[in-house]
C-alpha cells in the first residue's frame, strides 16, 4: 500500500515558492490499478515522482507497505527504487542498445543477477510483452506500441512491486493505447503488481483503473472507484473529463432537451442490472410513454454499465421514476 499523508510540494522558482501539490491524502491499495487524472500542470508528474523520491515532499509523509520512506537516502533509497518500475510517455529507451540490452540494463545496474538469470529474464519478459522476435532490433526500428512494450519489459526486469506509468499511452494511437492498457491490466492481475497511472485521458482510467483520484491545481478534488467517478462525477473538472470522453456537449444537449416534451431522466445501470429488461415493464405498469434520447452500453474495467437518457411522457411519471429507483438503477433528473 502507498500512503500520502498531508503531502505538500512546492518548487523554488526564481526565488519564489510555487505550490505544485497541496494537502494530498491518498491511499493506493496493494495490487490495484490506481489512476490519477488531471489537466496539464495539475501536479500529476510531481505526485508520481514523489513515490520513488525523484522529488521530495516539502512536508507530509509518504509510506509504502507501512514503512515511512520520506527520508530514505543512500542504500535504502536505491533498494526502494529497485522495487519501483516506471514507464514513460516517450519510452526513454537507450537508442544505441538493442531491445534485449535495454531490458537487461536495469538488472546489470542492480548487480544482483547472474548472467544466466539475466538472459532468462530478458527472454521471459520479451516473450510476455509479445516481442520475442524483436530482441536484436534497435528502438528506432520499432513502432510506438512496440517501444512501450519494451519499456514495460524493462520496468519489470528487477521484479518491482510497484509500477509507475507516466502518461504511458499519450503518444500512442487509440488502438495501440488499448492494447498497451490491456497488457498492463493483464500484468497487474498476473503479478499482483500495484500500478499507479497518471493520465489526462478518461478512457485510460475507464479501461484499467480500479480507483481514481482527480487532481486540479495541485489538489485532489474527487476520488473513488473508477465506476463511481466515471458514472457519477461530482466535481466540475471530473465532469468535463467525462463529457469530453463521451463527446457530450452540455450546451448542445440542453438545447436538444428543449425540443422534447416530458420529464428528462438519465438512468445508469451497473453490473447485472445493465442487461435486465425493465423499461417496458415499468412503462406498462405506470402508463407512461418514453422516448430514448441517447444511450450506450460499455465497460468500466470488467464491470458492464449502461447509461440512457430518456423522456417520460404522460401516465404516472412519479411512480415510474420511483419504480426505476427501486430497480437498482441510478436516476438523475436532468429536467423535472
Ligand atoms: N522541476 C520543477 N521546477 C519548477 N516548477 C515545477 C517543476 N516541476 C513541475 N513544476 C510546476 O509544478 C506544477 C505541477 O507540474 P506537474 O508537471 O507535476 O503537472 P502535470 O499535471 O504532470 O502536468 P503535465 O501533464 O503538463 O506534465 C506546474 O505548475 C509546474 O510548472
From TrEMBL:
Membrane-protein topology: Peripheral membrane protein
SMART domains assigned to the protein according to its UniProt record, in alphabetical order: AAA (SM00382), NIL (SM00930)
One Pfam family per UniProt: ABC_tran
GO biological process: amino acid transport
Taxonomic superkingdom: Bacteria
Keyword Translocase: yes
CDD domains, alphabetized: ABC_MetN_methionine_transporter
Name listed for the protein in its UniProt record: Cell division ATP-binding protein FtsE
Source organism per UniProt: Aquisalimonas asiatica
